[in-house]
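Cast an eye over this sequence plus tokens and explain the fold to me:
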Amino acid sequence: MKTHTCVFVLCAGVAAHGLGLMAQGTPSAPTFDKPAADNMTLTAVEGIKVGHVTLSARPTGCTAILFKDGTTGSVDQRGGAPGTRETDLLDPVNDVQIVNAISLAGGSAFGLDAASGVMRWLDEHHVGYPVGPYGVVPIVPAAILFDLPFGGDAKVRPGADCGYQAAAAATGAPVTEGNVGAGAGATVGKLAFINGGGPMKAGIGSAAIKLPNGLVVAAIVAVNAAGDIIDPQTGQVVAGVRGTDGKLADVRKLLLTGGSRPARAGENTTIGIVATNAKLTKVQAQKMAQMANDGYARTIYPSHTPADGDTIFSVATGTWDGQSNYGQIGALAAEAMAEAVIRAATQATGSGGLPAARDLGTVPARFKK
């Protein structure tokens, strides 16, 4: 997995073409190799590439996810304060059936501009929705999370050049997790309680489920929750609100005391993608996204609040010829998403003065390397 670190002046648009990949003529469209057998991340789904750009100056960043031609896409958005782009296009009642890429980014609404850079890279490689003699229009939905308070200068945020670089860096290798890309500035446990002691660091997580018949369902997620991350297998809090003693306080109990303040808009924003190699219609892909939101509810407490932007995109690359039940795929998508959320907390490292789960010794045994 390629991860690029760039300074703010580059990602603000000073460099004309990011990594300078413009060559004479039109670059060829990206190719997608068969995933490695040991890949247990989003790129285990054939027809997907992922690239991160991390801005170390704050930090923050963006993540570009590229798809093979003909990939079906939809979305389910349940938070009350979303920051999104092109989600109406993904409604099954609307005409365009495919997606070419999805952009996930930090930087609040400013980060939506990263999608423009992904579009530019795809346009240069002639990837997009055909519009006759006018070429193609790349279909790049996007979602952002609110990380402006983390790490200092809120003016450092991912822009179009960062999206361009993330697309250029995308590979089919196992996804790099933790403090990278859209998860570079992600934190959890931001609900302030009377006896609270502060939040913790989280980031990007990814997981895949593979069935013996060849069906693959996978997820990637950037976790920026206001509350706690809970392991659904044990019911234990992995990361979240800390008390004055520095230990986890358990929001499930603290909410019953009435000592919380309302979360500010965007603080509970968790953004992600579920994907499968099965063939799905746009309607079926939307149901997959809806069911995948159960993965948020199992692992994030609270989730889908009025002040968050929780969003899940769904894609189906159709590279598998087997027969499947899309209800089963949706159930597996919820499982993959739940595992990816836990990984976003357990694979993160302490940063900006905030500890991560590994610093508190709360990483579940199955995630320890």
User: Anything to note?
Assistant: Confidence is low (pLDDT under 50) at residues 1-24. The two ends are 19 Å apart (CA to CA). The first helix runs from residue 8 to 14. Residues 13 and 53 are 14 Å apart (CA to CA).
